[in-house]
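Quick illustration, no need to memorize.
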Amino acid sequence: MRIFAAGIVTETNTFSPMPTGLGNFETLRRANYAPGNSLGATEIDALQQLTSARGWEFIFSLSAFAEPAGITVRRAYEQLRDELLTDLAAALPLDIVFLPLHGAMVADGYDDCEGDLIDCVRAIVGPEVVIGVELDLHCHLTQRMVDGADLIVIYKEYPHTDMAQRAHDLFDLAVATREGRIKPAMALFDCRMIGMYLTPYEPMRSFVDAMLAAEGKEGVLSLSLAHCFPWGDVPDCGARMLAITDGNPAQAQAVAEAWGRRFYDLRREVTIRPLSLDAALDRALASSRTPVVIADQSDNAGGGAPSDSTFVLWALLERGVTNAGVAMIWDPIVAKLAHAAGVG
């Protein structure tokens, strides 16, 4: 078989004023690809290893990754996309195309970059080539993606410890589809929820374990829960359940709804309920154990925010707290002035 793989990955915080430009992407191209040197693209490594183990041809285009930030500049997305598509057209004929993506990338003019990319890939390869997509669970899972791809598999763990395992799942399903052993049918159910859901803790742990146990039984090929990215203000933001069955669209829809409603029934238990700033400081200052860490979930650089707010610093100063540190305030001009002024 001839297998093609490429990805463009970033998580877009649409509330951030900091655009994501071409210079923000670390881009690994075919010329400098080697397993273990793929800029965190664990899935690419796994797919390459699985392909090579079978003696098949692995054709790598590019893996472009940018840390979470604001909306991607249009020309940056289009340049990376078009480079990928040029490589794809040159690689024809193909049996399978793998697209390790994020699922929450927004560019100027594109609310659903992944859906656009999948459509462009399908237009080049035609209906017979299998398109398999792997997504971060903090994705905006859209009907457009489902319509364009043959298979979508999403990480099940948050924190993300199962990227390679899900690549294995996607690979096995894609090969079985190409060989005619299965005929995947995908369906979505909108859970009408927006939040952050930590899978190591109950009841999320049991929900994920139950999904894993149900796969491969009674015609169910795969189950995925898209948690959503709450700081992506796009029409498709929200938790969605995805079911893939073997040749049975009606069953896929019924299974997606059943599992989606099961998750919805847990909504009050699985949703993180953060403390207010004052309540968090009260608890921290009353603690006999140190150090105490307070995390700002919104102005969080790991979620694409600029980390430039001073609310926590202001509250600490108002309370007269001196034995504390604020880990991140991003303001390079003030930082330069402070260093110039010196201690005190």
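The CA atoms of residues 32 and 179 lie 31 Å apart.
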